[in-house]
Amino acid sequence: MILFTNARIFDGSGAPPFSGEVLIKDNRIAGISRAGEPSLPRASATVIDCAGATLMPGLTEAHAHLSWPSSVERFVPGMLLPAEDLVLNTARNARILLDHGFTSAYSGGALGKTLEITLKAQIDSGGMPGPRLIPSSIEREPPTDGTFVSSGSIAQDRHVDGTGPEAIREFVKSCAALGAKSVKFLLSGESALKPGASMQLMYSPEEVKAAGEQARESNVWLTGHAHAAEAVKLGVRNGFRILYHCTYSDAEAIDLLTARKDDLFVAPTPGIVQATLDAAPPPHVDMSHMKKDAAIVLEHQQKLMPELKKRGLRLLPGGDYGFPFNPNGRNARDLELFVRHFGFTPTEALVAATIGSLTVATVSLKKFSAFEIWTLVAFAI
Ligand SMILES: [Zn+2]
Known about the structure:
The strands form three sheets. Strands 1, 2, 3, 4, 5 and 14 form a six-stranded mixed beta sheet that branches. Strands 9-10-11-12-13 form a five-stranded parallel beta sheet, sandwiched between helices. A three-stranded parallel beta sheet has the order 6-7-8. It is built from eleven helices and 14 strands. The protein is globular. 48% of the residues are buried. Mean pLDDT is 88; it is low at 144-158 and 362-381. The two termini are 28 Å apart. 34% of the residues lie in helices and 18% in strands. The protein is an alpha/beta fold. Bound molecules: zinc ion.
């Protein structure tokens, strides 16, 4: 048993924090006592005096890339590492997220087919520190002429064999068979990597429909990278659970998103955008095109996200951390960006990252109590 005493408790609901203590038994909340109420039993508990610090539910990262190499502890110039280094570095990034207050992570794709699935097994069996993880496999990029550069795939693991609905079905089936829980598709391209690509659809409607059908059959969730309005619409219509970016959503896309507000999540992903704008690269690295694109994306999202919020969409923090200029471990910066760019209050941003995010990373609210694992984070709210 662990007793946190003398804490300022933020319960994730949005209610104002209150002073009190919390008793943890078998990783679950066994009791909460507010200041002035009788204190909780402490005879056989490890007592932690919080000295007035804030005690709150763990944060959820909705767009995690644990295998993307850079972190606040280690700068990696690029995306590729030798295999052994990649595996250990990914495990290290899992620990880094936990150290920075994130107790759940929903993957937006990995650099190895079974890397996150294996990592999750290690974490869940108690052998390694890391967040509760919804693991993914390689994100699927469609066959291209070679000019589309993804965030970094490993040649033999590309999963890109073939086009057409049947190839897509096979891909979803193979990810599920490996143990992936979410399957990632680049529904649109990415202009930061290839000019104009954000407005291009990477799959036909028939292919995305096949993905939706197979995901239901294989019991996996679909995750979509979607900037273009038509990419957002394809994702919404075919049962995608979470859509990233949604930058160029038009009126129809916004209406479609709104109609699915109870079972779909949007992660606008401001972290990577702000990091691109802030980056001061060395002279041999030219980020001028990326910066120009990031400014356009931000301008659109600053209008779109307050509208989606007003319509009741669940917008989740999570920002593509793992790039050299946007390292893993800096993830909580998304909360500040939700306040700065999307009109959230600090409390609303914390709610979005805790209770608001809970269902995206867990099978059901019943399985995991919102208060199952709390972290001490010194946020001033
Ligand atoms: Zn991503």
